[in-house]
Amino acid sequence: VQLVESGGGWVQPGRSLTLSCATSGFTYDPLGIGWFRQTPGKEREGVAVINVKDDNTYYADSVPGRFTISSNRANRIVTLQMNGLKPEDTGDYYCAADRVDLLIAVLRKAVPHRHVAHWGRGTAVIVSS
């Protein structure tokens, strides 16, 4: 099983960035893929989750309307489109895979992120002028 993130970088506030997560080897049903972010000294928090089977999406309260998660089942890539970026969006962004109900529970902060089985290595996003 493998998760590989790409697309991080530096952007100015208000601009956009697209993160991609290439996935392989997962057989969960229903499979969920999520994006999480972490800043120094803070707990890793959920940003968005997608049910790869039915494309239902779920978002953290801090990002509705600005971020969009989507899945391309053909090439097994999950994308996070981030618009209207703010300095507080700065952090290391991680792609994760597990049962979708678990990822949603982590997104809602009902379950610690350490319960998620599979993580990518992360990609850094810096939002600064």
List the helices and strands and how they pair.
Layout: E1 2-6, E2 9-11, E3 17-24, E4 31-38, E5 45-51, E6 57-59, E7 67-72, E8 77-82, E9 91-99, H1 100-107, E10 118-119, E11 123-127
Parallel strand pairs: 2-11
Antiparallel strand pairs: 1-3, 3-8, 4-5, 4-9, 5-6, 7-8, 9-10, 9-11
What does this protein look like?
By secondary structure, this protein is mostly beta strands. Helices cover 6% and strands 48% of the residues. The protein has one helix at 100-107; strands at 2-6, 9-11, 17-24, 31-38, 45-51, 57-59, 67-72, 77-82, 91-99, 118-119, 123-127. The strands form 2 sheets. Strands 2, 4, 5, 6, 9, 10 and 11 form a 7-stranded mixed beta sheet that branches. A hairpin with a 4-residue loop joins strand 7 (67-72) and strand 8 (77-82). The longest helix has 8 residues, at 100-107. It starts with a strand and ends with a strand.
